[in-house]
Amino acid sequence: MAVLNQFQQYSQGENTVTNNVLLMLSNLYEINPKYYEEYIRGLTEDSDNYEVIPTFLQQFNNRGDGFIDGHIQIKASKIIIETKLHGLEWIDKLLKYSKSFDHNEYKLLFHLSSSKYPQSDIEKINTRLKNGGLKGKVNFHSITYQDLVDQLKELAKNYTYEQYLQRLNEHFEAYCLGMGLMPRSSHILRAMACGQSFDLNVKHKFYFDLASRGYSDFNYLGIYKWKSVRYIGKVENVIVANWDETEGLEVLDKKFDITKDQENRLIDAIKESIENGWGVDNDHRFFLLKDFEETDFNKTSPGGIFRVRFFNLEDYFDEVPKNMKELALQLKTKSWE
Predict the structure, then answer these.
(1) How many angstroms separate the CA atoms of 211 and 193, rounded?
(2) What superkingdom does the record give (predicted)?
(3) What is the pTM of this model?
């Protein structure tokens, strides 16, 4: 049940975040250069100028002096990214990086953060870039991590058959949420593909994962199987604990004070999990759920999910029902890709 993610989640400096953004982009290019090109064009709303795929031409006009038999071209381009976790870079510092652009290339300057420059600052930046003495236009874009996630999600919707793209999309969104790089909602549903542990998860209204795996706060946990979220519950407590038949339960960390009922529930769940072959006796995090209800929030696109999928329920409801029975009932009328 441990959730493996290709993005490093154990530190959160700007260098680490930049590395993971570049890793996402390089993986996207490796899956298919066409996807990468569409992604950058979508981010910049530029459908023509940014190219990474060669054009192959025959009998190409040699600027009025005959015809070239074969002509293969990739237009030169460069993207420079300045990363901040949450704030905005000083404009003077941002602009100095434009010196790294060369003359005959398509130039993109990205400022990446959880917040955007106000429009007045964007206009100021563009004016200074225009008057800065560079040959050729520098295209500046103030981009948020939410923009990166939304654009990748849109790309994944267009290519639902591409499993590596689907996994990249899910992993990158989970990483950005886990690192607190996107605005938080009070209605985040974390759906977990439970597989062989499904019956245990439902019976004991809990989920377990390795304690070493990072996670972000979320309000609801969904039990996913057979292409649908089958159960949903509110997170009642999050407990990191070890279990020993002689020593009993050793609590290493907890989100809230543990009630006697929660302790007994957790012990029963751990014991039965061990009996069923799950090695949860050491270094595991347990999510205890309350208001646990059956639902059928189904996936309409081909294939399953890669372990985890996050949903902001505000995207599915004008007003998210406060009553869990009502929420579970209404989710049966919703679907996702």
Answers:
(1) 18
(2) Bacteria
(3) 0.60
